Amino acid sequence: MANPPLQPVRGTRDLIGEDFRAHHHVISAARRIMALYGYEEWATPIFESTGVFARSLGETSDVVSKEMYSFEDRGGDSITLRPENTAGICRALVSNGLTQSNLPRKVFYAGPMFRYERPQKGRYRQFHQIGAEVLGAAEPLADAEVIAAGWHILQDLGISDGVVLEINTLGDAESRDAYRAALVAHFTAHQEGLSADSRVRLEKNPMRILDSKDEGDRRIVATAPTIQPFLTEKAAAFFEAVLNHLATFGVPVRKNPRIVRGLDYYSHTAFEFVTDRLGAQGTVMAGGRYDGLVEEMGGPATPCVGWAAGVERLAMLLAATPPAPRPVAVIPVGEAQEAAALGLLQDLRRAGVVAEIAYKGNLKRRMERANKLSARAALILGEDELAQGSVQLRDLDAGSQEIIPLAEAVSRLTA
Ligand code: ATP
Ligand code: MG
User: Is 38 left (phi over 0), alpha (psi -120 to 50) or beta?
Assistant: First the structure.
């Protein structure tokens, strides 16, 4: 009996046809634009020692407490499939001895991430991110520039309409200590209404409650104090400078004091690009400043800022999927013309023309195949034409045909 067909793991998707092209379009646009801003691309391993994430992202973050794909490998080491790439990039900066020279480094990455979440539209267990990190820059201009680059990508993809940059500051350590005390007072007063998770957070990391998705928590968060009155003068000035630079770069912003980000390593700037076009999964790009992470990885104090964006969510916002390239079909009328056809086929490809040949079949079959492939033109090599050094060129959209010198075929199709 035949085996039952296998299915992909829940929350994973195959990228085929249109899906792949949309995905690829997002990544190549981002890669091209980040290069304009002076970013180099890094690729770090898809799995890391669990410690790389467990400590840096914060024990009480959703990602660490519920979403990591961690396992013991055959040698007994605890390994985790990366749920995000910032920790890996910082680990790589330290492991490769790059923390002392040539800073700041601007790093771009693209690749798959893994989180054990409830799969739904725009939320998968294997998804993909593009991301940008400025490593070793404490200046507010770094924050503004990396955000402007993200905005540039959204504009280039034609999806910036209806996407809003929401921005907040988490202040410096002194601001946060004062703020934390005020939050503890507020949440303690409303303790009985908090979810079980948030009661744990109240003990371990009360700011995390601000990022809770629980309905009851959200009502209590709505009346919580904001950080603004607790900001030190320096932290407030830093935020002002970021906002001023963003205005100069022409990036529209909306201040949102509720943006805190889900991971522990952030300070100062925190931001999200959000849209209401994706239902509940409305955050397309998110990031902030993280000044303590490189130290967590065993390096020297290194101020950094960056963002990550979900490729699937960006791809869903595209108005149209880029079409597949339309080939030129090369068609030998009989076996005697096949060698000449293969020669022409390779000449076209070397000149950058997408060209196809059917592996078998008579003229009629090969024309059918050309139409199936949406060929834009056919070059038909017949016995008489070939003897005179010519070939028939059919424009498959116009339905017109002409006899042209074989030697001109490539230049006609590259024009
Ligand atoms: P969310 O609030 O939607 O869970 P998050 O705060 O967990 O997002 P980040 O860790 O900031 O997300 O990741 C950056 C971006 O990666 C998100 O804004 C989103 O576009 C994308 N992303 C995160 N998790 C997923 C997922 N499971 N599936 C698809 N995209 C995701
Ligand atoms: Mg999440």
Answer: left
CA of 125 to the centre of ligand 2 (A): 11
> Any idea what DSSP says for residue 278?
T
Residue 1: its pLDDT value, please?
66
Does the pLDDT at position 207 exceed 80?
yes
* Number of neighbours of residue 258 by Cβ within 10 angstroms: 13
Tell me the CA end-to-end span of the chain in Å, nearest whole number.
Answer: 55
382 exposed, middle or buried (CB, 10 Å; 0-12, 13-18, 19+)?
middle
- Mean pLDDT in residue range 271-287: 93
Average pLDDT over residues 37-52: 97
Query: 119 C-alpha to center of ligand 2: Å?
Result: 11
Given a cut of 90, whether residue 17 has pLDDT beyond it is yes
59 band by pLDDT with thresholds 50, 70 and 90? confident
* Ligand 2 centroid distance, CA of 162 (Å): 22
pLDDT at 58 (0 to 100): 79
| Other C-beta atoms lying within 10 Å of the C-beta of residue 381 | 24
pLDDT of residue 262: 62
Segment 175-185 shows an average pLDDT of 92
* Top mutation candidate among 53, 63, 213, 281 for ligand 1, by most atoms within 8 Å of CB: 281
The residue among 306, 315, 312 whose CA lies nearest residue 129 is: 312
pLDDT in tens, 286-312: 999 998 899 989 999 999 999 999 999
Say if residues 269 and 212 touch (Cβ distance below 8 Å).
no
Name the residue with the closest Cα to ligand 1, atom 28: 123
Q: Which atom of ligand 1 is nearest to the CA of 272?
A: 18
Give the amino acid at 149. Answer: A
Cβ atoms of residues 37 and 340 within 8 Å: no
**Domains, in order of start, for the chain:** 18-172+232-317 (3.30.930.10), 328-414 (3.40.50.800)
Vertex 319 angle, CA 314 and 322, to 5°: 85
138 C-alpha to ligand 1 centroid (Å):
26
